[in-house]
Amino acid sequence: MAEESGATARPATGTFRVKRGLAEMLEGGVIMDVVDPEQAKLAEDAGASAVMALERVPADIRRDGGVARMSDPAMIEGIEAAVTVPVMAKARIGHLAEAQVLQSLGVDFVDESEVLTPADEAHHIDKWAFTVPFVCGATNLGEALRR
User: Fold this and answer.
1) Is 7 left (phi over 0), alpha (psi -120 to 50) or beta?
2) Of 85, 91, 59, which Cα lies nearest the Cα of 73?
3) Higher pLDDT among residues 88 and 10, named by residue
4) Judging by beta carbons within 10 Å of its beta carbon (0-12, 13-18, 19+), is residue 145 exposed, middle or buried?
5) Phi and psi dihedrals of 41, rounded to 5?
6) Where would I find the beta strands (DSSP E) of the chain?
7) pLDDT value at position 1?
8) CB neighbour burial string for 76-85, b if at least 16 within 10 angstroms, e if fewer
9) Active site residue 127
10) Which of the residues 19, 41, 90, 127 is marked catalytic?
11) pTM of the entire predicted model
């Protein structure tokens, strides 16, 4: 019908159904933290269902007095080029710009992560404004629904 009226149909990306389907593909699988394309390829070859791109362990960054931020975009792109499994990357809680950068890089999931240094102690990112799905940890259902 869209073709008959001259309008082009918009692809259904970023819908709840698409986001849920992507997450369900990971059910029962292992997501491995990787710091470079070589580790990502090893994880994929070992059967990982996805990889989480990290420059360094966030706890080590904070222990050394640093601020744990989103990983370097060039490193994330290298990991994306090396594997066919979904690539996830972390954004700080409440940091809209980091999440926007990750979406523009084409990551498969954004993790608004409590292990990174929070950018906003009171507010989380509005996930409905994104087409990329988000994952996050939660200690209970209430916390999960707030995030």
Assistant:
1) beta
2) 91
3) 88
4) exposed
5) -65, -40
6) 31-34, 50-53, 87-92, 109-113, 134-135
7) 42
8) bbebbebbeb
9) no
10) 90
11) 0.78
Quick one: which of 38, 65, 66, 64 has its CA closest to 53?
Answer: 38
For the chain, the domains span 35-146
* Both tokens assigned to 77: 């792109």
pLDDT digits 0-9 by tens, 38-80: 999 999 999 999 999 998 877 777 788 877 888 999 999 999 9
Q: Are 143 and 130 in contact (CB under 8 A)?
A: no
- 35-146: in CATH 3.20.20.70: yes
Query: How far apart, in Å, are the Cα atoms of 147 and each of 59, 64, 135, 137?
Result: 22, 28, 9, 9
| CB under 8 A, 24+ apart: contacts of 103-109 | 103/130, 103/131, 103/132, 105/73, 105/76, 105/77, 105/80, 106/80, 107/53, 107/76, 107/80, 107/132, 108/22, 108/50, 108/132, 108/133, 109/22, 109/23, 109/50, 109/133, 109/134, 109/135
